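Backbone-to-sequence.
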């Protein structure tokens, strides 16, 4: 018997060790993902050098209620070098186009992001001036589900434009006629969110859940930071996701232990502490986000149900056992 207990103890020790190793690997992986996201954002927001027309897109916030990404679009200057550099340059106003829903809810598999077409639609010629265009506020509609926080992701797609030309006699030579004339840098200032390229699988999912299309969706995700169009995924840090999962498992096991194992005399204090503690964790993880009820809240509700179900079950079982004991004692006395 001693040998069996020792063997069982060794097995538990090995399993516990493997679990800790697995948890450590998951944490290392999550930290690495977050660091890679930070590096990507740093490179994506790096100002580009050279004689090019550069735009800076500042992503400042994501409104959970309206699911809109808001920010500021700026023109940073720099133009392709013409043969005659002394000619006056005329600038049109900054403009942008929200292509998120155009991509998701149309039957075409590849959104036409041709900047010349975009300019002809959005920029009247009479608005050209010799001064740099002023920054403008923008709002892109995001596709995502905030109720699954912190595992929510948001998809945005758009394009920016600023038409500019020089006069050569009566002829106008436009910037967009130059190859590789325009570039876009993106800075993410949205609190609690990272940005990255969408994968081909994600693009396919966005297309599939929105409209039935036989054509596979294609978009040049490598165009980010090298063109005046972009497609991005905004998501929470992996640290937050892993922390939520770990605390969720701890809260679940605690609910089971308090409900089914804690002595009845200690139950009131344990229950009060558990309810306050779990709700405090919820407040820390959610921050100032106004998402209620979310799937996170439904998970907490089920933990509370498990907790009280264990208490009620033990109470009913204890009462039933007491009745059986009284009846057996009564039968014994009658027999005597």
């Amino acid at each position: 018997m001693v040998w069996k207990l020792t063997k069982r103890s060794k097995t538990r020790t090995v399993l516990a060790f493997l679990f800790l190793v697995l948890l450590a690997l998951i944490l290392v992986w999550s930290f690495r993902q977050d660091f890679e996201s930070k590096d990507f954002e740093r490179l994506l927001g790096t100002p580009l050098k050279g004689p090019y027309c550069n735009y800076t897109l500042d992503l400042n916030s994501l409104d959970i209620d309206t699911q809109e990404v808001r920010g500021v679009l700026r023109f940073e200057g720099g133009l392709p070098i013409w043969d005659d550099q002394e000619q006056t340059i005329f600038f049109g106003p900054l403009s942008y186009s929200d292509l998120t829903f155009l991509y998701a809810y149309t039957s075409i598999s590849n959104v036409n992001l041709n900047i010349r077409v975009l300019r002809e639609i959005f920029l009247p010629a009479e608005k050209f001036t010799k001064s740099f265009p002023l920054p403008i506020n923008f709002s892109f509609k995001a596709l995502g589900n905030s109720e699954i926080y912190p595992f929510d992701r948001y998809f945005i797609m758009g394009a920016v434009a600023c038409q500019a030309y020089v006069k050569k006699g009566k002829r106008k030579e436009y910037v967009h006629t130059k190859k590789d004339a325009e570039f876009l840098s993106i800075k993410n200032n949205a609190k609690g969110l990272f940005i990255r390229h969408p994968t081909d699988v994600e693009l396919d999912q966005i297309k599939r859940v929105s409209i039935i299309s036989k054509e596979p969706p294609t978009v040049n995700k490598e165009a980010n930071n090298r063109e005046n169009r972009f497609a991005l995924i905004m998501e929470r840090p992996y640290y937050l996701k892993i922390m939520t999962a770990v605390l969720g498992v701890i809260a679940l096991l605690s609910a089971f232990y308090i409900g089914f194992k804690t002595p009845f005399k200690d139950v009131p204090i344990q229950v009060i502490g558990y309810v306050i503690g779990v709700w405090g964790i919820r407040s820390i993880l959610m921050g100032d986000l106004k998402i209620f009820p979310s799937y996170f809240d439904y998970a907490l509700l089920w933990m509370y149900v498990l907790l009280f179900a264990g208490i009620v079950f033990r109470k009913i079982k204890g009462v039933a056992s007491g009745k059986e004991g009284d009846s057996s004692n009564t039968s014994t006395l009658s027999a005597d």
